[in-house]
Design a protein that fits this description.
Layout lengths: L11 H10 L29 E4 L5 H14 L15 H19 L18 E7 L5 E13 L4 E3 L1 H15 L6 H13 L4 H8 L4 E11 L8 H15 L4 E7 L3 H9 L3 E14 L15 E14 L9
Parallel strand pairs: 5-6
Antiparallel strand pairs: 1-2, 2-3, 3-4, 3-5, 6-8, 7-8
Helix pairs in contact: 2-3
């Protein structure tokens, strides 16, 4: 029979204080991504030499193809049941196109610069990383993005939602002439991104905490249990420190024991749990459906989801 799971218990006030600094912790869309934590087991063999690179426009299609195979097909989207998912050729192509579009939307600001950066886009940093093996093949990926932790709602707002909320708060200041000077100061802080996210959130949304969100973690089946997942998570943690954020958070389904063991071994611990979350699954196309008329293969299903977090290690001489 299933043994009861020990759970960290915090009062609402204690939880808010914990998330506010991420320093009291004793220990990334999806939930929006499944949650996207593929069954990437911890390392049991010596870790090989792994090259890690940031995804760009030239490699985003390759990243999408890999993610479909390593996450959606191999692990059935982290469903932890039913084994590998079998997709037809048209289903696979449709899902690959969807993932490429999703990656461009969520991480494209990291490779668009200057005039290519659309107004209001990418003020909260994000990055998608690929790990490659000795032959140059993709063996793993992970995403990291700035986010907001809301302990009152017990939710994590990914970069796009967090940015919209911050912009709403900034816009509200323009309605009051007495707030003009404050608006100018905070707007400059927000736009320049000079490590200004933490003080900006502290002033505009004091109940929330700026943190890095770890997501889109997947490892090739042939490379699991060789330290790839831990290596990628380590790169995500370094990005978190580079961005001046106090800690990292991630979301994982309660039923995904393999992912929870991995993250527990990396120092992540539960800060809150929701039984009314939605996880993402692949829905097979009806036989008569044409791939060019189908909009998506992904659907949301109810799930119990845990939010885990850990404090980031401080790094010296960090550049923005």
């Amino acid at each position: 029979s299933r043994q009861p799971r020990p759970r960290l218990r915090f009062s609402a006030m204690c939880m808010a204080a914990t998330l506010a600094g991420l320093a009291l912790l004793p220990r990334s869309t999806r939930v929006p991504s499944g949650p996207r934590a593929a069954s990437a087991h911890g390392a049991s063999l010596a870790a090989p030499a792994i090259a890690v690179e940031a995804v760009s426009e030239s490699s985003v299609e390759e990243a999408a193809v890999f993610f479909v195979e390593a996450f959606w097909v191999s692990t059935n989207g982290g469903a932890c049941s039913g084994g590998a998912l079998r997709l037809s050729r048209k289903e696979r192509r449709l899902l690959e196109a969807q993932m490429a579009d999703d990656f461009r939307t969520r991480y494209g600001c990291s490779w668009r610069v200057g005039s290519q950066l659309r107004q209001g886009e990418g003020l909260l940093p994000s990055r998608l990383l690929l790990a490659r093996g000795d032959a140059g093949e993709v063996i793993g990926c992970v995403g990291i993005e700035a986010a907001l932790l809301d302990p009152i709602a017990r939710r994590v707002l990914p970069a796009r939602s967090a940015e919209a909320r911050l912009q709403t708060e900034l816009a509200a200041l323009t309605l009051h002439p007495s707030e003009q000077a404050r608006w100018e100061r905070l707007s400059e802080l927000y736009v320049t991104r000079q490590r200004g996210l933490r003080p900006l959130v502290s002033e505009l949304l004091p109940a929330c905490t700026a943190a890095a969100l770890l997501t889109d973690l997947a490892v090739s089946p042939a490379w699991r249990r060789r330290g790839v997942a831990r290596h990628l998570c380590g790169h995500g943690e370094r990005l978190c420190s580079d961005w001046g954020l106090p800690g990292l958070a991630l979301k994982v389904e309660e039923a995904n024991g393999a992912a929870r063991r991995l993250y527990g071994g990396l120092g992540y611990e539960e800060v809150f749990r929701r039984d009314d979350e939605m996880a993402t699954r692949v829905a097979r196309l009806p036989a008569a459906t044409r791939a060019d008329t189908a909009r998506t293969l992904l659907r949301n299903v109810p799930s119990s989801v845990l939010t885990l977090a850990k404090r980031a290690e401080e790094r010296k001489n960090v550049r923005e």
